[in-house]
Amino acid sequence: xxxxxxxWGKILRVDLSKEKIKVETFGDSFARKYLGGVCLAAxxxxxxxxxxxxxxx
Length: 57
Description:
- Helix content is 32%, strand content 21%.
- It is built from two helices and two strands, in the order ββαα.
- The chain has a two-stranded antiparallel ribbon with strand order 1-2.
- The chain is an alpha+beta fold.
- The longest helix is centred in the C-terminal third of the chain and has 11 residues, at 38-48.
- The chain has a domain at 10-48.
- It starts with 9 loop residues before the first strand and ends in a 9-residue tail after the last helix.
């Protein structure tokens, strides 16, 4: 069964420091597990932010 609505299986990742953009894709299983507001955002932050990052810059 496919997911209906605003799901396209893609995330646009924008790096303002390097002035680059990247389209990342993810599958239905990832979407079903994490899609929707806080869960998706929390998972992406967990995957992308390195430990000991200064939250203020």
